[in-house]
Amino acid sequence: MATTTAFDRALLLNGEWLETGEWLDVRSPYDGSPIGRVARGGADEARRAVDAAARAMEEPLPGHKRAEILVRVAAALGNRADEAARIVSAEAGKPLKAARIEVARAMSTYTMAAVQARTLTGEMIPMDASQAGEGKFGFTVRVPIGVVGAISPFNFPLNLVAHKIAPALAAGCAVVLKPASQTPLSALFLAELEADAGLPPGWLNVLVGPASEIGDVLVDDERVKLITFTGSGPVGWKLRERAPRKRVNLELGNATPVIVESDADIDATATKLAANAFSFAGQSCISVQRIYVHHSVYDAFKAAFLPRVEALKVGDPGDEDTDVGPLISESERDRVLSWIEQARDGGATILTGGELEGTLLKPTVVERPAPDAHLSCDEAFGPVCTLQPYESLDEALALSNGTRYGLQAGIFTTSLATAAKAAQTLEFGGITVNEAPTFRADQMPYGGVKDSGNTREGPAWAVREMTEERLVVVQL
Ligand code: NAP
Fold first, then answer.
1. What is the Å distance from ligand 1's center to 430 Cα?
2. Backbone torsions φ then ψ of 294, nearest 5 degrees
């Protein structure tokens, strides 16, 4: 068992649950109540974790064993789904219904990773395609890249950890994981499931503590061959700059645009966008943020959209019927409020929200923000979206492309030609048609271009990143 008590969580280091004598409190973002305590690790524990991971990889685990462990974790997540959802909800302030979806998705991530563990393979090289290769036989094998350092954010504390540690195991890599300080309990819960599923010591090590201290060890230690980071842009790009000889895979933010064309199904579109602009109070990297609506259907869309936003239930994330809970911290809430104020001062209209309900920020819709307002240019990461009419598709495409981000974007239209043009023109890692760009299925390739990142996750893609291709040439 992982816990010293239900309340205290030790770190996982070389297969041992480690207490360090110092504790970090985990508190509810909703009401500040204590959720648990986690042993605090630092540079020393991080170095020992890399030692343990490197040692573990000296005895590779065969693919079938890796797959069996991954399948067992998926099953355990299913058996303990309610407990997992309650941990996610409590520490992240995520409404329970969204937390339950996250748990189901983490099961899917493990299931897909298990498939990769069983099917990981290289390819045949047609050696006799050139004169030089005649009389030879060539193929590639995929070998684990080495120890993986993983750093994860608070907003999907279970499934985004799963997206790092499950593919790493599928690829045959041992991991040193540093989850977000605000949400370490979901990661440690997952680590417990992996240990219970038969993962030998050292293959997964989880440290909670000062980000820069642990991050520095991952950057400096040459045995860490890949850093997989999900979080904010400035932290991610800095890590990459500091580790030029490692693979540093970044999954970063977005200011997600959606185009609503004149031929779209207005009611269906309004329903999807109201749900996906405010789920988890907008704290998803692909939360709908900038909605561009063709001028001919602008009023109809607004009339359909606003009542759906106002019907969302704001409140305690532990209640089964809550749609919108708190932001992760008061300072984040105040930042989002100040961005709404800035837009208002710049001439925008607040159509709904823009104020607190108790301590929670109400779902907010801002009409026509100035082009240089934060809400038009930067990632809001809060329960707020903008509405703006446009004249032509070209204008809407240019507006959508007009920020430094490029993770996912969406378009609602019944015209195949329009959808195809959008898919070709939008500079994003993923385009959704007649679906909110907040959509993600865990087997998809997922990741961004421009400032939004430099890689793709989804087990099949992550496993490719976490392995090297090795060529074997045989003289016949
Ligand atoms: P964050 O502040 O960048 O933190 C992410 C992780 O980085 C945390 O574990 C944090 O640790 C750690 N960290 C902070 N400073 C570090 C340093 N100097 N060295 C090493 N690690 C460091 O991001 P967040 O607020 O948790 O997450 C929100 C952001 O993540 C948003 O921008 C969102 O769009 C993005 N995101 C992207 C995706 C995607 O797949 N593209 C998915 C989800 C979220 P501490 O918690 O200890 O500070």
1. 21
2. -60, 135
